[in-house]
Specification:
This protein is mainly β. It is built from no helices and five strands.
């Protein structure tokens, strides 16, 4: 099974080797069928990257690194 890849924005970079990535997507409301914007936050491992809040990044699914960290920063988008 291929690893999932998501694009998002760094929401917090206050932890060591970990950043919080905010991923925004669109989905239809189940009853009213209106398209709404949904945001989900993921914790990602970022060793070797110098990231600041607002940076655009690509994250890739990986093995569990901690209790709620299952993603790794793949690259920084320009």
């Amino acid at each position: 099974m291929p690893k999932r890849i998501l694009k998002g924005t760094v929401a917090s970079a206050k932890m060591q080797k970990t950043v919080v990535i905010s991923v925004t997507g669109v989905k239809a409301h189940p009853k009213y069928k209106k398209v709404v914007r949904v945001t989900k936050k993921y914790k990602a491992h970022s060793e070797g990257f110098d990231l600041k809040t607002g940076d655009r990044v690509i994250i890739e699914e990986c093995r569990p690194i901690s209790k709620d960290k299952h993603w790794m920063v793949k690259e920084i988008q320009k």
